[in-house]
Amino acid sequence: MRTALVIGTGLIGTSAALALAGRGVTVHLADHDPERARTAAALGAGTDDPPEGPVDLVIVAVPPAHTAATLADAMRRGLARGYLDVASVKGGPRRELRELSLDLSAYIGTHPMAGKERSGPLAGTADLFEGRPWVLTPTPETDTEVLNLALELVALCRAVPVVMDAEAHDRAVALVSHTPQLVSSMVAARLREADETAVRLCGQGIRDVTRIAASDPRMWVEILSANPGPVADVLAGVAADLEETVRSLRSLQSPEESERRAGAEGVEDMLRRGNAGRARVPGKHGAAPAAYEIVAVLISDQPGELARIFADATRAGVNVEDVRIEHATGQQAGLVQLMVEPAAATVLSAALRQRGWSLRQ
User: How many other C-beta atoms can be found within 10 angstroms of the C-beta atom of residue 285?
Assistant: First the structure.
């Protein structure tokens, strides 16, 4: 691939363009808002000048509601050898393109499983896709050259290709992406009218659950409108679990010991099923989830403190597998939770104490 045209310079389009431009591909940028394309170009994502002739690959990065129409226009104009989109749903755009009687041998639907709460070209980064799954949904009619172009794009963005059926993809993202967004927003909505004293008690748990609730509502309305059936199916299952859990919690208030026991068993069953589901979430580098030990360190909110902790861990010969920061409300301090291999926890704890760090259980 030597040339590409990215249509749509939001977070995903700009990030893909930055990755390609950084690896020597000549990237042209287009957007319904020319100012967004100019912004992406100023960031180093390519040029907002139109290509002089057909490019190797057109990457359509517009909202799902406009994906098929944008692809159809590009294909009819013969803008490239191959065409792909990065919309978060795959079945709908392909069905719309078939209804337009277009030759789909030059098209492949894709979806990079990466994103942020922020949107727009200024949120784009060249490393957004590194190590992330990038779904490809070829069909028997997909031209081999187009599939190879898609695989090259994934490689240049340093993502991990995953081949799936389009309808299976849409059911999968309903479970792992679209429903979590709605559930996060529902929990966050409970905070809107909450008493200020309750909000001040927010800790890391509520921050974790509501992080993605900060996403752009307009963008998510478009995404959910393109995949409503599978999302509704998953939410119906969540609703059934909620109803059963509510009944169990009500039973815990019963004066009858047998009902209280049944309520406790119901709550425990829900929690254990949650444990089992969480254990299936892939861990580091997509491998099976590992059981890490947590070394919790009290840290002050001052420049260089995080760097000092990691430097001390390095001196101890310990690799930090993951990290979390839990901020203390109203204080210039917090807890850094360092996740390490179980065998390294004792070594790291001793080394950090020796260097003056205050550890917590």
Answer: 7
d(CA 148, CA 320): 37
Pick the last residue of a domain from 234, 249, 278. Answer: 278
Q: Dig out the tokens for 121 from the structure.
A: 């070209």
Number of H helices, E strands in the chain: 14, 11
Q: HEC string of 24-87?
A: CCEEEEECCCHHHHHHHHHCCCCECCCCCCCEEEEEECCCHHHHHHHHHHHHHCCCEEEEEECC
Tell whether 283 is covered by a domain.
no
Is 153:20 a contact under the CB 8 Å cutoff?
A: yes
305 sits in which H/E element: helix 305-315
CB atoms inside a 10 Å sphere around CB 108: 23
What is the domain range of residue 312?
293-360
Q: What is the pLDDT of residues 107-161, one digit of tens each?
A: 999 999 987 767 789 999 999 999 999 999 999 999 999 999 999 999 999 999 9
